[in-house]
Amino acid sequence: MFEQKVAFSVIGFERLMGKPLIPAQRRERIQEFLTIHQIARIGDLCALLETSEATIRRDLERLEADGVLERTHGGAILNQRLTSEPEYLHRVQKYPDEKKLIGALAASLVEDGDIVFIDSGTTTTQVLLNIRANPTVTVFTNNVNASLELGDAGFSHHLLGGEYQPRSKSTAGRFALENLRQVYADKAIIGVDGISLKHGCTVPTNVEAEVIRMMIERTKGKVIVAADHSKWGVVSNFQIASIDEVDILVTDEKFSASAIEDLSLHSVKVLVAKADVSK
């Protein structure tokens, strides 16, 4: 909040001194705003910088070309790069309450008789732990950590073979891909490290991306992404799906309303997992 006030006061001071901002200064202020808020509406930037919508659009085009941001319908989001895979134990500590709610809601989408692909990750671990005991449901996953926690799951549970990936506690590689080639699923529920309109769904490693892409390719029905709000605007190394390949996003209440609007224009249905306030 202090940084925000400083940024705004500098702009105000320059206006009082009768010095309109030059393009480089405007773009610097836009970057400062996005660093604080991650998301910006064109109308907010026009009011903040006291300039026209056409001028702001030109500034956003330039900043997008420079790789600073990604333009969206009516605004922009800050480009955040994730170049390496965080350790599993580090990820599990981030937004645990939100992930539990997301996991429960995503699991509720599994129906009687479904064959479901579920990949590795802390959010998809919660999905697996929340699938109700149902002997008609079959799950194929490379999520080693969740498989160890499941115990007697009550549904048919298959762990893909492959090379163990210690950072993600998953399996990947040729054997995992060969397993997947023998199955068609009704649904795929996948976790991602980044999601954006321009770059789609991304993950840090190629071996992980290969498994998830194969899951999507072998899915006859809905592709469901389970991701908390912090993944929006993040771009990692390897694309697993474009936005147009995603049918449903299950996320939490902190996910941006403007992002939900943008995704709806790409026919992505957004389901928001909410805490039960009655408890």
Please explain how this structure is put together.
This protein has 279 residues and is an alpha/beta fold. The protein folds into two domains: 2-78, Arc Repressor Mutant, subunit A (Orthogonal Bundle), CATH 1.10.10; 88-273, Rossmann fold (3-Layer(aba) Sandwich), CATH 3.40.50.10470. The chain is 40% helix and 25% strand. The chain contains eleven helices and 17 strands. A seven-stranded parallel beta sheet has the order 7-6-5-10-13-16-17, sandwiched between helices. A three-stranded antiparallel beta sheet has the order 1-3-2. The longest helix is centred in the first third of the chain and has 15 residues, at 2-16. Mean pLDDT is 86; it is low at 1-17.
Which parts are unreliable, with pLDDT below 50 for 5 consecutive residues or more?
Answer: 1-17
What CATH first level of the largest domain would be assigned? Answer: Alpha Beta
Largest sheet: 7 strands, parallel
Distance between the termini: 32 Å
Number of DSSP helices?
Answer: 11
CATH topology of the largest domain: Rossmann fold
> Which architecture of the largest domain does the CATH hierarchy give at level 2?
3-Layer(aba) Sandwich
| The named CATH superfamily of the largest domain | Translation initiation factor eif-2b, domain 2
Average pLDDT across residues? 86
**Overall tally of domains:** 2
* Largest sheet, spatial ordering of strands: 7-6-5-10-13-16-17
Compute the CA-based radius of gyration: 21 Å
Order of helices and strands: HHEHHEEEHHEHEHEEEHEEEHEEEEHE
Number of E strands: 17
Work out the strand percent.
25-35%
Q: Give helix % range.
A: 25-40%
Overall geometric form: elongated
**Structure class:** alpha/beta
